[in-house]
Design brief:
308 residues; alpha+beta; Phosphorylase Kinase, domain 1; Transferase(Phosphotransferase), domain 1; 3 domains; 6-stranded antiparallel sheet; 3-stranded antiparallel sheet; 11 strands
Amino acid sequence: MNTWKNQCKFPVNTTVVGKWHRNNYRLIKQLGEGANGVVYLASGNHGHLALKMSPDSFSITSEVNVLKAFAKAQGATLGPSLHDADDWDVSGGRIHFYTMEYIQGQDLLSFIRKKGHAWSGVMIVQLLDVLEKLHSQGWIFGDLKPENLIVTGPPPTIRCIDVGGTTLKGRAIKEFTEFFDRGYWGLGSRKAEPSYDLFSTAMLMINLFHQNRFTKKSHPYKQLIEVIRSDLELAKFEIPLKKSISGEYENAGEMKADILSVLSTGSVNKSTSRSLQRRKRQNNFLETVALLIFTVFLYVFYIYGYIL
């Protein structure tokens, strides 16, 4: 890995010259690096662009095909638009690259912290809308996590800045992050299918409410349900979250419909609501008992001190 990363390390103001299309790009700064390439902010004929390069032609070709699939999905704006794909011959060998739209905005977690959880459901609905279209093109997003999603606007729109984990349906997921991976939680395989993305979407929503990620315990499914029920606002979405975690949805449209239903009614599952209220009453009772004991202790201490 270090070998290919070194091949893709270039100083600021380096000019990348496409071998076939002859387009020139000036590297401004490095934006990041992943498992299969390095991304730079670059300037070209279309202004500022993101340029991803790698000596691995297969990974670059795969990601270019994903961006083309996003473009075919009518109305889908999740992924960046593709501008160019070419090769660059340098002294160290041939580098494969593509340029795409440079998307600017807030990362998803920061957006929710600033705007509040009222926006969580809206962002998830937007995400599911595009996933539905992406799945229809035969692709599964795979490595779905907040770090790969930012919010642009106005109006606030969820966008993706990394499609490196996107995988053809039926194959094994090639990139994943444990917290969002159903294989890690023991709740399904890593086969690229719509239900894999929908599980990750449920974990993404949980992460928006519980921004400190947690590790699995001995009973993962029960643990996740308890986490969902521990927050009154998140508990409103218990039914669609349980169904996505259990793999009950066949497509993203079904989950989107259930999330929209919750957003339109604002309803909470009755059993969950009773459970939360009961827990609150128990906590209030324990606080009252503790205060009473403390008061009696102070009174006894006062009387004892007065007698002495």
